Amino acid sequence: MASLHFDLETTAAGSKARAGVITTDHGKIHTPIFMPVGTVGSVKAVTQQQLKQDVNAQIILGNTYHLYLRPGTEVLEAAGGLHKFNRWDRPILTDSGGYQVFSLAANRKIKEEGVMFQSHIDGSRHLFSPESVMDIQRSIGADIIMAFDECPPYPSDYNYAKKSMELTHRWLDRCFDRLADTPDKYGYTQNLFPIVQGSTYKDLRTASCEYIASKNAAGNAIGGLSVGEPEEMMYDFTALCCDILPKEKPRYLMGVGTPWNILEGIDLGIDMFDCVMPTRNGRNGMLFTTQGVINIRNKKWASDFSPIDPGLPCEPSQYYSKAYLRHLFVADELLGLTLASIQNLSFYLWLVAEARQHIIAGDFKSWKAGFVEVVKQRL
C-alpha cells in the first residue's frame, strides 16, 4: 500500500499557518488537525460512533506503553491490530511511550540499550528499546508511529540536554533500522515520525531539527515542549523548529494544548496537535465553548436553560442545556462526563476546522487575533 502523503494546499497571508491534506491508508486528514487522545484504545467517556458523528474526529491516538501493558500485543495481533480491536476505521497515531517513561522518573533507568522501567499497574519490570518499541507499534498497527525518544525535564542543564538529544538521535537510527527489517503486519503502511528534542537550548534544537530533517521521514514531530516551560518560550522554540523542518512534510507539536496554544501553533506553521486537556478538563467540569470557558459546576448555571454551546454545530451541545449538564455533574451522573467530553472535543475539532477555513479564505491572522481573546474569556 502507499505510504503517507501530504498535500500542502495553501499558506495564510501574513502568517506561516498552512492548510493541507494528509493521506493515509485509512483515510484523509485535513490539516490543521487536533487528534483526540485514546491512550488505551479508547477516548475516555466517548464512543467511536460519537467521535465520528458528534466530534468529527479524523484521527485518534493510542499509546504504546499503555497498550503494551493492557491488553498486550498478543491480544492486539489476534484481533488484527488496534483498528479492528476498537472498531475505529479512520487513521490512528501511536505515541512511542517515551513521555510515559519520562513521567516514571522515580522508577526508570536510562541506558544506551533502552529504558528499564516498572509498570504502574503491578510494579513488574520491563525494558523498552528502540527495537522493542517498533515491534510493539507493528503489533498495534497504527498508521503513524512515533520514534522512541528521551524527553528531558524542564529545566535541564545543557550537558544533560545535549546527551539526551544525542541518545534520541541514536535511538532514531535504530528505529529506522528495525522498521526496515520488519514488514507491516496488516497489509497497510505504517509511517515513522522522528521527534525533535534539545530542551530549551537554541543550538541543540537547531541541531536536532537538522538531524531529523535529514532523515526525510513522512512527517516530523516536535517533542519536549509543554513540559513546564513558559508559554512564550514554547512558542519561540516552535517557531525555530518550523523554520528548519521541511515545509513539504506535516509538522506535529506533541502534547499541546489550550485552544489559544493551538491557534498560536497553527500561526507558527504546525499542522497536527494532541492533548488530554479537552477530555480531562471536561470530566472535571471545565468546558471550552465558542463564547469562552465555563465551569459548569458553578451555581450560576443552575437555571440556565440555554444550550450548552449555541455556537457549536454539535447536536449534544445544541440539544442539552447548561442547567441539565450542571445537574448531571452535581448528581455525579456519568452522562455528564460524556457530554462535557463531547463538548470539548467537538470544540477543538471545530476550532481547527475554522482555522483551516480562514487560512484558505486569506484572513486567518485577523480572525485569530480576535478569537484568541474570546476563547480565553471566563464566563
UniProtKB/TrEMBL annotation:
Residues 255-261, 279-283 are annotated as: RNA binding. Its EC number is 2.4.2.29. The active site is at 95 (proton acceptor), 274 (nucleophile). Keywords: Glycosyltransferase, Queuosine biosynthesis, Transferase, tRNA processing. It holds the Pfam family TGT. Residues 16-373 form the tRNA-guanine(15) transglycosylase-like domain. Signal peptide: none annotated. It catalyses: 7-aminomethyl-7-carbaguanine + guanosine(34) in tRNA = 7-aminomethyl-7-carbaguanosine(34) in tRNA + guanine. Substrate binds at residues 95-99, 149, 197, 224. Pathway: tRNA modification; tRNA-queuosine biosynthesis. GO terms for molecular function: glycosyltransferase activity. Gene3D superfamilies: Queuine tRNA-ribosyltransferase-like. It comes from the Bacteria. Catalyzes the base-exchange of a guanine (G) residue with the queuine precursor 7-aminomethyl-7-deazaguanine (PreQ1) at position 34 (anticodon wobble position) in tRNAs with GU(N) anticodons (tRNA-Asp, -Asn, -His and -Tyr). Catalysis occurs through a double-displacement mechanism. The nucleophile active site attacks the C1' of nucleotide 34 to detach the guanine base from the RNA, forming a covalent enzyme-RNA intermediate. The proton acceptor active site deprotonates the incoming PreQ1, allowing a nucleophilic attack on the C1' of the ribose to form the product. Belongs to the queuine tRNA-ribosyltransferase family. Homodimer. Within each dimer, one monomer is responsible for RNA recognition and catalysis, while the other monomer binds to the replacement base PreQ1. This is Queuine tRNA-ribosyltransferase.
